Structures
1.
Amino acid sequence: MSASLSRRIPGEHPVRGDIGRAAASGAALAELDDVLGRLDPADLPPGQMWDGNLTAIHPLVPSLGPLIDGLPADCRDEVARILTGVRPRTDLPRQIIHGDFAPSNVLMVGDRVTAILDFETCGPGYRAMDLAVGRYFFNDFGHPTAAGEAFQRGYLDRFPLTGAELDSLPELELMREATSLVHWYGRHLSGLTTAEDVAARADRLLGLQRLSR
């Protein structure tokens, strides 16, 4: 296992529901995405792919069948329908993205963001995916909130997206959760997570699907 030692960064995680901190977090992610968009993926080591190709997420998960078969019977068919419906898109701008922007990966002092953490899943993906992911978490796992709206507004004021990207946000939220489920199943096969952890991710995916109907 690798490790690193870094200077301690002051700050605390923003609390869900704090509108001012949500807006500041959205603006910070926009600033990060502006910088990440200037990087050439060819100059970087291979990383997590956020493009909807679910069979390329984890080296231990080349097909979705075993994942689906291992889920509780009462959710298996619905999860299978969602996963088989996720497809890569060719009409959305791509760049390096953070991929996991949540309150737990942000540090703040007052209304100022002091750090963005956890670049483990940073890699090539749809540019709008970062906004979709951040909105999902600041919206209380997909449930619409004023803080989620503030987060999106803070982001778009700094880093405007196209109309097609904005229209794609619900689809990208679902794609990200599907990607996360596959990733966690791969971690389970590696002995890093439990079957219960994978089932919980499946439940989260199903919850988001029901919200989007």
Note: The chain has a mean pLDDT of 93.
2.
Amino acid sequence: MFNIIKADFYKLWKSKILLWITLGFLGILLLGNGLVQGGDGVMTLMSDSMNYNLVHFGKKGTQMMIELLKGSNVILFFLIPIVINVFISDFKYKTIKNTVSYQYSRTTIYLSKMLICALFALILPVLYVILGLVMSILFNGFVSMRLSDLITVLKIIVLQLPLYIGFIGIMVFIGILFKSNMATTLFTILYQFMMIFISTIVTSIHLSEIDPVTCLDHLAYLNNLSTSVIYKTEFVGFILILISLTLGIYVFCYRDIA
């Protein structure tokens, strides 16, 4: 398993995907800061229209990192190239056959690659808020650094992990099912726009509790959430992980990968 993980990290490094993701984050953060200098809630972009709580965190200081997490829809888009390069592109370039024939079980291969993708479900939000904090300091000036804000940010990100990992599992399943990078991309984009549309039109449905597109937006108000709502979010995430792993492993193990 370790050799598979090491090889995929090397592939990501050589492909410069991580560099392009960083530049993409910087571009979005630069645009957000440039466009919305007049008020709080900078860089939430589309997510701002779906906030179920009117609280905004100030533009200055480390609370901006919490505000940034309300842009969860932006972060989810950047998981697409990770999933594709770690797993789905192996079908396109036929390298998956080499991995399977190299005395690794298909279940081991699947779980190894899912582990890498799951790790980036943690890395990308952390990278996003750190870059956003730096950008906010450049635009708005340095005020204060508070450890409590950093701890809150980490708690929010950890709470969203099950939901994100479960969604990544569905992305992988779709890609394996159709053996297509495009299928994974289209599924993720169409799902996001569908959730954004439903959340905007049908405001009585609180999708943010169970939906990866808006869960960080919802969890940004961690101090205002009841324990039951937090448990509900976690429960849905773990159920999604279980379903996606079962479907993904079944399809990967029992279908021809040629």
Note: The radius of gyration is 19 Å.
3.
Amino acid sequence: MTRILGGLVFFAYGGVLTFIPMYTRSLGMGGSTSLFFLVFALVIVVRRPFVGYLFDHHGPNATVYPGFAFFSLGFILFSLAGNLPVLLLSAAVLGIGFGALAPAFQTLAVQSAPASRAGVATSTYFWSLDISVGLAAAVLGVAANAFGYPFMYGVICLSSSLLGLAYYFFWRRSLS
């Protein structure tokens, strides 16, 4: 289940990765795509040690729930970005969320398998990442073409929130 939820997080991320050049161009900020990814990546790198510490010392809930909250908020900001400061703020907030969710779900996927199958669990996790990003390009491209980028990113935000709820109900059930 964690591989599926992780794959769905990467589906949402695929919407950013695939369509940001067209989205920023439609906003009149086409030259800002590299700056967006610079902020996104820097936030992930800076936050990674803190995320690892939280996961190791306080469990997955300490990273996954806030990760979904930041990921969803980042998509709200991203869908409303009309100027460079909001676009870069969305990059930072998405980086916080994605930077918490991606390693948390990878760790959960590996922990859910017997130690002898850790390599298989890792490869399956990254396989779902690749498939999810590819599917995002196809499916979200249709949505963006039909309804526009702000709508598409708003739907991704709602979907990310629903993924957080799915994690809550799955994880809560798995603990009892």
Note: The first helix runs from residue 2 to 26.
